[in-house]
UniProtKB/TrEMBL annotation:
SUPFAM superfamilies: 6-phosphogluconate dehydrogenase C-terminal domain-like, NAD(P)-binding Rossmann-fold domains, UDP-glucose/GDP-mannose dehydrogenase C-terminal domain
Residues that coordinate or bind NAD(+): 10-15, 35, 40, 91-95, 132-133, 166, 277-280, 347
GO biological process: glycosaminoglycan biosynthetic process; UDP-glucuronate biosynthetic process
DNA-binding among keywords: no
GO MF terms, alphabetically ordered: NAD binding; UDP-glucose 6-dehydrogenase activity
Biological role: Catalyzes the conversion of UDP-glucose into UDP-glucuronate, one of the precursors of teichuronic acid.
Active-site residues, Swiss-Prot/TrEMBL: 277 (nucleophile)
Source organism of the structure: Cyclobacterium xiamenense
Keywords: NAD, Oxidoreductase
Name under which the protein is recorded: UDP-glucose 6-dehydrogenase
């Protein structure tokens, strides 16, 4: 079967970039990305491609090339479903905030709505592709809804989890380590798998396209994120030990990373991982394991989250301790709010939790991030519900000039590893600050010795002060 029309439901950080790259690589396939969020779709259609809602290096150029040719962004979900032979579901699957499984299970209400909408609209057979990260066995729920409400049509459900990393999404999509496609091992299921393999095979070498049964594919995505997050928590746990023993976490990471069995990636100690996926997907794994009565498995993975929360809290406490045990009325400048560099995504960013802790201690915070908008910072803080939104606006301000943001501060805290922070005129920053001037490097990106020679008191993750 040759796919000519693809629809993707969900124009977010995954749907947008993924479909833009498919459209670029397959100019003969019409790709329509739909969303119920009108503002988001309008931003994807903005004449100036610098205003698209997702910031990713290289993405604007890809959108500029394909948009209007074979890439379309629309709010007409029904029409796009009707036209497509293959429908990707790329909607959000956040952690549940209510009811059974609150705080752990994935909230699948948006997934279910998509399935019901596809069943209602479809007039012909469809291949439905799970692009969202889902709990293992979700495909059976989708199949159930589609076959019971879908007018006797045939629906094949594939799992095709996305492994892109924000900040390098375009690079990862153009040259993925692998593409994973899971489906039913029946003749119809294998045909559907082949149809999707044929799409990716336009630019991904065949040996990098892995096919499995649908359950292995669903579980592999949760497992990949759990392993990655576990590496971060492992190195972060040792960073605390380094601070007490005068071992240096950067040296330890280099020493173990050269072991080919361990490898050098994901060994950077930091203020803790953020992003919309790691925490949610591990909590999901924990929840599923517990639901099968596998308490040891659940406890094992839950510890990765416990360690990460500890790391964020520990960083805030370190700031307070070094500012003579009180930050009340003191200004602290934050460099970075995004959860990592080269993205404007702030979901679960460590900066939010560190700021919340310091605001509870009555400090005053001024932040600067090269890509995050002011309203987003306040949305993140207000979401926590720790204080009124008026108080958040009074005690935290968002600046656009990093030098002004640091002026009059007792301390500068680096929360995101943006490259530009390394190249600042740190002497100028020092001159404008109150003394003693502290730098808390939550990402280990600054030159400690250079800063010390300027006069800063430097505190970095995983090294003794
Ligand atoms: N962000 C990542 O780096 C990443 C990486 C891999 C996988 N994932 C997974 O991909 C999925 C999507 O993540 P995201 O970061 O793109 O989320 P997102 O919140 O940025 O985007 C989801 C979009 O879906 C839309 N939506 C929700 N319900 C809808 C409906 N019924 N009809 C039409 N549109 C609807 C929302 O309006 C939103 O714009 C999640 O399951 C996530 O776990 C994310």
């Amino acid at each position: 079967m040759k796919v000519q029309n693809i629809c993707c439901i969900g124009a977010g950080y995954v749907g947008g970039p993924t479909m833009a790259v498919i459209a670029k690589k397959c100019p003969d396939i019409k790709v329509t990305v739909v969303d119920i969020n009108q503002e988001r779709i309008a931003a994807w259609n903005d004449e100036n491609v610098d205003n698209i809602p997702v910031y990713e290096p290289g993405l604007s150029a890809v959108v500029a090339e394909a948009r209007g040719r074979n890439l379309f962004f629309s709010t007409d979900v029904d029409k796009a479903i009707d036209e497509a032979e293959m429908i990707f579901i790329s909607v959000n699957t956040p952690t549940k905030t209510y009811g059974e499984g609150k705080g752990q299970a994935a909230d699948l209400k948006w997934i279910e709505l998509c399935a019901r909408q596809i069943a209602r609209v479809a007039k012909g057979d469809k291949i439905v592709v799970e692009k969202s990260t889902l709990p293992v066995r979700t495909a059976s729920t989708l199949k159930d809804i589609l076959t019971h409400t879908g007018d006797g049509l045939s629906f094949q459900i594939l799992s095709n989890p996305e492994f892109l990393a924000e900040g390098t999404a375009v690079e990862d999509l153009m040259d993925p380590d692998r593409v994973l496609i899971g489906g039913d091992q029946t003749p119809e299921g294998l045909n559907a798998i082949q149809a999707l393999v044929d799409v990716y095979a336009r630019w991904v070498p065949k040996d990098k396209i892995l096919t499995t049964n649908v359950w292995s594919s669903e579980l592999s995505k949760l497992t990949a994120n759990a392993y990655l997050a576990q590496r971060v928590s492992s190195i972060n746990s040792l960073s605390e030990l380094c601070e007490f023993t005068e071992a240096d976490i950067n040296e330890v990471a280099r020493a173990i990373g050269t072991d080919s069995r361990i490898g050098p990636k994901f060994l950077k100690a930091s203020v803790g991982f953020g992003g919309s996926c790691f925490q949610k997907d591990i909590l999901n794994l924990v929840y599923i394991s517990r639901s099968y009565g596998l308490n040891e498995v659940a406890d094992y993975w839950e510890q990765v989250i416990i360690m990460n929360d500890h790391q964020k809290r520990r960083f805030a406490k370190k700031i307070i301790k070094n500012l003579y045990n009180t930050v009340s009325g003191k200004k602290i400048a934050f460099l970075g709010w995004a959860f990592k560099k080269d993205t404007n995504d702030t979901r679960e960013s460590a900066a939010i939790y560190v700021a919340d802790h310091l605001l509870n201690e009555q400090s005053f915070i001024e932040t600067y991030d090269p890509k995050v908008k002011k309203e987003q910072v306040y949305t993140d803080l207000d979401y926590l519900g720790s204080r009124s939104s008026e108080e958040n606006r009074k005690n935290l301000t968002v600046g656009t000039d990093p030098y002004k943001v640091c002026e009059g501060a007792h301390a500068v805290a680096v929360l995101t590893e943006w490259d530009e922070f390394k190249t600042y005129d740190w002497k100028r920053i020092y001159d404008g600050m109150l003394k003693p001037a502290h730098v808390f490097d939550g990402r280990n990106i600054l030159d400690k010795e250079a800063l010390r020679s300027i006069g800063f008191q430097v505190h970095a993750i995983g090294t003794a002060d």
